[in-house]
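Quiz preparation item.
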């Protein structure tokens, strides 16, 4: 249930409503929107008659029921797009924010070279893994804190904020100390303790869709972060596992359009993990923006054949610069989807 407050409601009105909710074993999340202040009610069961009681309280305009399992993430709860602000950057609301960089931070020379290249080509955010989730325990698993320090150095040199993954709850505090955005990896999408720990840092959190998660499960994962009181949540579609073997994953562009319709959260498209092949990144990147994605995450390496991870899906510097020329052309012509009536 969502309680819509009147424009004239004051702090005492809000406190009285929150207290009434506590009496019913419910939790209220006050939420200042662009046009109205609301209180989202989260709890297992809303007692019969509560909505009528609340509607008669001072300062309350109306209540509305959200039937979807996720509430705070739902478009019905917040009709306006969420805009996540990172410094001067705005992610959401039809932006075309480009996150680019290597799969893993490998060395100072490598991350600085790629950071300068993606910055020169017009990327907005640097990406790079310091803690890497790898299918095999014997594969390169990242430089850890040293990798975070190198990302911070690259930020200092280029001015680009960065995004990096926190792999488990133990690392969240450390990662949050360095990074601008915390990435929750696909394999961790339903690691609920991690979602909450990351959410509580107050940093923007990007939740990648699990390889076999439904859109509803993905939005419920985002709901875990939102329920900590952190509103800066970004979704990322990075491909799901299907019967198809020609590509590493199947980039689900339906999901981008569906998530934009069902949720107010920004959606980033990752055609690198979505296809697993560098030569498919360009067409799917453009498609991701065409279906309404709020930006892209692209893996870039100075020498993909020698990358410690995900070389086959990484663009070299030259191809990334070429892609950016096309991204700029498409983002200049992009408009919000026309409402069909
Ligand atoms: C990554 O971004 O390098 C990564 C590991 O992504 P995913 O969690 O989507 O596999
Ligand atoms: Mn990768």
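Solution:
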């Amino acid at each position: 249930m969502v309680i819509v407050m009147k424009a004239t409601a004051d702090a005492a009105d809000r406190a009285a409503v929150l207290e009434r909710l506590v009496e019913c074993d419910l939790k209220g999340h006050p939420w200042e929107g662009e046009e109205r202040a609301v209180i989202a009610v989260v709890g297992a069961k809303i007692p019969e008659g509560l909505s009528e009681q609340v509607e008669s309280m001072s300062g309350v305009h109306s209540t509305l029921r959200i039937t979807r399992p996720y509430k705070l993430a739902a478009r019905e709860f917040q009709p306006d797009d969420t805009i996540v602000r990172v410094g001067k950057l705005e992610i959401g609301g039809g932006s075309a924010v480009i996150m680019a960089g290597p799969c893993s931070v490998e060395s100072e020379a490598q991350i600085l070279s790629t950071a300068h290249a993606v910055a020169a080509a017009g990327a907005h955010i640097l990406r790079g893994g310091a803690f890497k989730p790898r299918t095999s325990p014997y594969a390169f698993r990242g430089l850890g804190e040293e990798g975070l320090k190198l990302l911070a150095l690259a930020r200092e040199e280029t001015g680009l904020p960065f995004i990096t993954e926190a792999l488990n709850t133990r690392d969240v505090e450390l990662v949050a100390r360095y990074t601008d955005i915390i990435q929750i990896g696909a394999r961790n999408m339903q690691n609920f303790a991690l979602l909450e720990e990351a959410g509580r840092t107050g940093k923007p959190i990007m939740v990648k869709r699990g390889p076999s998660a439904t859109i509803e499960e993905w939005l419920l994962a985002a709901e875990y972060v939102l329920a900590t009181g952190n509103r800066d949540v970004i979704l990322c579609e990075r491909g799901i596992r299907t019967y198809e073997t020609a590509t590493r994953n199947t980039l689900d562009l339906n999901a981008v359009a569906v998530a934009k319709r069902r949720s107010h959260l920004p959606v980033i498209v990752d055609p690198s993990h979505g296809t697993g092949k560098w030569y498919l990144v360009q067409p799917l990147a453009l498609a991701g923006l065409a279906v309404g994605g709020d930006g892209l995450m692209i893996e870039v390496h100075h020498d993909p054949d020698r990358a410690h991870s995900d070389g086959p899906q990484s663009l070299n510097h030259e191809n990334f610069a070429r892609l950016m020329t096309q991204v700029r052309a498409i983002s200049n012509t992009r408009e919000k989807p026309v409402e069909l009536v």
